[in-house]
Amino acid sequence: MSQLALDLIRQAKREGWKSLDLGCTGLTDDNIPDELFELTELEELRLSNRVWDNKKREWIESKNTGRYNLLHNIPHNIIRLQNLQKLYIGGSGYIHIFGYLRFRDNWGISGISTLKNLKNLRLLDIRNNNISDISFFRYLRNLQSLDINYNNISNVSALKNLKNLKSLNVSDNNIS
Q1: Residues 65-87: what's their mean pLDDT?
Q2: Separation CA 88–CA 16 (nearest Å)
Q3: What is the DSSP string of 112-132?
Q4: Is residue 164 a contact partner of residue 121, using CB atoms and an 8 Å limit?
Q5: What is the C-alpha to C-alpha distance for residues 121 and 96, in angstroms, rounded to an integer?
Q6: pLDDT in tens, 120-173
Q7: Residue 23 CB: number of other CB atoms within 10 A?
Q8: Exposed e or buried b for every residue in 71-106, given b needs 16+ CB within 10 A?
Q9: Of 86, 64, 74, which is closest to residue 32 (Cα–Cα)?
Q10: How many CA atoms are closer than 13 Å to the CA of 113, on its beta-carbon side?
Q11: 156: exposed, middle or buried (C-beta count within 10 Å: 0-12, 13-18, 19+)?
């Protein structure tokens, strides 16, 4: 279990946080604390190690200093977080270490249909994964911002009914 993640979750619970950054806490599929899913008032959850800021056009690193997270599945219990409006749950492309080493921070998440139950989502960032089926997006009618670049998506027809969508990134997929 990631002690850093657990400590942050417990602090969030005590202090009633609406936003929680669990990036760089060493999370894997096997060690996500169950206590996370008790934070039912959460509006923003960041599991990504870093996120892209569209306005600033730069990567924003997690403030946490633990090991990088690496997930291959979306925890089923995430459906308990019904107040989530923003979810960051993906890799972040190339990461440079000491200015010269680079590695690809791709996660292996492929099954994401569980997210269809998070009806309040306004922002979803699931870049750098292994996603091919996005048909369930039609249920996420409140989405305003969606980043699904660097996946294996070929059919984007499920996005046509997302009338609130203002920002969309589908680059580097298999769309024909």
Answers
A1: 95
A2: 20
A3: -GGGGG-TT-SEEE--SS---
A4: no
A5: 31
A6: 999 999 999 999 999 999 999 999 999 999 999 999 999 998 999 999 999 999
A7: 23
A8: bebbbeebebbeebbbbbbbbbbebeeeeeeeeebb
A9: 74
A10: 5
A11: middle
Burial of 111 (0-12, 13-18, 19+ CB in 10 A): middle
Question: Tokens 């990088």 identify what position?
Answer: 68
Q: What pLDDT, in 10s, does the model give residues 7-39?
A: 999 999 999 999 999 999 999 999 999 999 999
Residue 42 tokens read as 């959460």
In the numeric block, which tokens belong to residue 3?
């002690």
Cα–Cα distance for residue pair 126/44, rounded to 1 Å: 14
As a whole number of angstroms, the distance between CA 147 and CA 149 comes to 6
User: Which tokens go with 53?
Assistant: 């800021």
CA 75, 69, 52: angle at the middle one, nearest 5?
100
Two structure tokens written together for 146: 């969606």
Place of tokens 């899913």: 37
Answer yes or no: are the C-beta atoms of 134 and 128 closer than 8 Å. no
Instruction: Give me the amino acid identity at 108.
Output: G
> Do the strands 145-147 and 123-125 form a parallel or antiparallel pair, or are they unpaired?
parallel
